C-alpha cells in the first residue's frame, strides 16, 4: 500500500494510472471503523485502484473542542487500510492542501446546506464542500464513496459534482451498525460505558418512528420522539426531522410519490451523534 503526504506524488501516480485503470476514492477523517472499511470493500469491487484519504479537515468543525478531541488513530488506520487492500492512502497536511490559506470557500447548494446539520453547525458544509472539491481535483477518481450516515453530506456532495460539472460518480453506501444498532461513527470511541449503553436508544427510536410513519403525521411523530428523549437522562435530542430525500425539506404529511427519511442528532454530554432511517 502506498502512503503519500504530498499532492504531487498523488497526482503523478494517478496520471500514470488513469488511462488504463478505474479509480475509486474513499475520503475519510481517520479514526477508521468497519463502516469505513465497508466503503473500501465496495470500492475495491467496483474499481481497479482504490485511494483513501485521511485528513481531519479543520474548516468543517464549527466547534474547536470537537476538532481538538476528534480521535486520531493513524497507526491502526493504516493497518486496517492495508488489510482491506486499499492501494494508496493520501494523508495531506492542512497548509499543503489549503495552499497556506486554511479557509473555506462559500457554496450555494440550493438550500440543502440550510437544513438540519446546517442549522446547528454553521459553516460546516462550506468546509466539507471545500475539502471534498479539492480532494476530487487531486485524486480525480471515477467513483467516490460516502456513507449514508451523513446523508445530508451525501446529497450536498451530489449537488457539488452536479453544479461544478465534476465527472465523478457519487456512490452512497448503507449505514454500518454495531450489533445493538448504533450507527458506527469515529465519535463512538469517545463515549463512556454508560453513554455507550444508552446510545442504541437513538436507532431504536428511529425504527419506532418508521413504524409510526404509516399511521401518524410528521408533527405527531416529532412530538413523540421529543417526549421519548425527555425520559433519557444521558442523551439530549438536538433535532429530529422527517424530510424529503431530494430537497431535505421537512414535511408535514406523507407524500406517496416522494422518498422520505427521518434524521436525528443527539448529544451524549459533549459528543454529538447523528443517524437516519429511510421511511
Ligand atoms: O465524512 C467525512 O468523514 C468528512 O466529512 C469528509 C467527507 C472526509 C470530508 O472531510
Description:
- This protein has 279 residues and is of the alpha/beta class.
- The chain folds into two domains: 172 residues, 3-Layer(aba) Sandwich (Rossmann fold); 93 residues, 2-Layer Sandwich (Pantoate--beta-alanine Ligase, Chain: A,domain 2), CATH 3.30.1300.
- The chain is 39% helix and 19% strand.
- It has eleven helices and nine strands.
- It has a six-stranded parallel sheet with strand order 1-4-3-2-5-6, sandwiched between helices. Strands 7-8-9 form a three-stranded antiparallel sheet, with helices on one face.
- Strand 8 and strand 9 form a beta hairpin.
- The chain is globular, with a radius of gyration of 19 Å.
- The termini are far apart.
- The mean pLDDT is 96.
- The site of pantoate has 10 residues, from strand 2 and helix 7.
In short:
With 279 residues, this protein is α/β, with parallel strands linked by helices. It has helices at 7-17, 34-46, 64-69, 74-83, 94-97, 117-120, 124-139, 151-163, 193-198, 201-212, 218-230; strands spanning 2-4, 23-28, 49-54, 88-90, 143-147, 169-173, 236-244, 260-268, 271-278.
Amino acid at each position: 500500500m502506498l502512503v503519500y503526504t504530498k499532492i504531487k506524488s498523488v497526482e503523478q501516480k494517478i496520471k500514470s494510472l488513469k488511462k488504463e485503470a478505474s479509480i475509486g476514492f474513499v475520503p475519510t477523517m481517520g479514526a477508521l471503523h468497519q463502516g469505513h472499511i465497508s466503503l473500501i470493500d465496495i470500492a475495491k469491487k467496483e474499481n481497479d485502484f482504490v485511494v483513501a484519504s485521511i485528513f481531519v479537515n479543520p474548516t468543517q468543525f464549527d466547534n474547536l473542542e470537537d476538532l481538538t478531541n476528534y480521535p486520531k488513530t493513524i497507526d491502526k488506520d493504516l493497518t486496517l487500510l492495508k488489510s482491506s487492500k486499499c492501494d494508496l492512502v493520501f494523508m495531506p497536511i492542512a497548509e499543503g492542501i489549503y495552499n497556506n490559506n486554511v479557509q473555506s470557500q462559500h457554496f450555494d447548494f440550493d438550500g440543502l446546506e440550510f437544513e438540519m446539520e446546517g442549522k446547528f453547525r454553521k459553516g460546516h458544509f462550506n468546509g466539507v464542500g471545500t475539502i471534498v472539491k479539492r480532494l476530487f481535483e487531486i485524486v480525480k477518481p471515477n467513483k467516490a464513496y460516502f456513507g449514508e450516515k451523513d446523508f445530508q453530506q451525501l446529497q450536498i456532495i451530489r449537488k457539488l459534482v452536479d453544479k461544478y460539472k465534476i465527472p465523478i460518480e457519487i456512490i452512497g453506501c448503507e449505514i454500518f451498525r454495531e450489533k445493538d444498532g448504533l450507527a458506527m461513527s469515529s465519535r463512538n470511541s469517545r463515549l463512556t460505558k454508560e453513554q455507550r449503553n444508552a446510545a442504541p436508544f437513538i436507532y431504536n427510536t428511529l425504527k419506532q418512528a418508521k413504524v409510526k410513519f404509516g399511521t401518524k403525521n410528521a408533527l405527531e411523530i416529532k412530538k413523540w420522539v421529543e417526549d421519548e428523549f425527555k425520559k433519557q437522562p444521558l442523551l439530549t435530542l438536538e433535532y429530529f426531522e422527517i424530510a424529503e430525500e431530494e430537497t431535505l425539506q421537512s414535511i408535514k404529511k406523507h407524500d406517496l410519490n416522494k422518498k422520505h427519511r427521518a434524521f436525528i442528532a443527539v448529544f451524549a454530554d459533549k459528543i454529538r451523534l447523528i443517524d437516519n432511517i429511510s421511511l
